[in-house]
Amino acid sequence: METQTTPNTACNQEWERRKELEQAVLAHLMENGAAKKWGALYSHFYQDERGEIGEALAELTQERHILVESDGTARLTVSGVDQLYSVAETRR
After folding, report:
1. What is the CATH number of domain 7-90?
2. Grouped pLDDT means (10 residues each) for the chain, 92 residues
3. Which residues partner with 35 through β-bridges?
């Protein structure tokens, strides 16, 4: 039996996917260091034509979980580390 997706369910799924993508970006920066160019993050996490990575990176920057320096280097902030660990704790 096929399950229908309601607008609310689709919205929730989109939100969950974006949050998972944000967590993946934070984890990637934590594991690979701060010297990751902003553009390289787009390439590494490019999902599809809907621009999800752009939205995720914008939100991470707005929430100050990552800092993009003038040379394009993206750095994980203390807030980003806290976010990464707090989500990991809630998933246990």
Report:
1. 1.10.10.10
2. 61 84 90 75 70 84 92 90 84 66
3. none
Q: In this structure, what token pair is assigned to residue 12?
A: 């929730």
Task: Give the DSSP H/E element, type plus range, for residue 42.
Answer: helix 38-45
Q: What ranges do the domains of the chain cover?
A: 7-90
pLDDT at 78: 94
DSSP string, 11-34: HHHHHHHHHHHHHHHHHHHHHH-S
How does DSSP classify residue 77? Answer: -
Number of residues that make up the chain: 92
- pTM (2 decimals)? 0.75
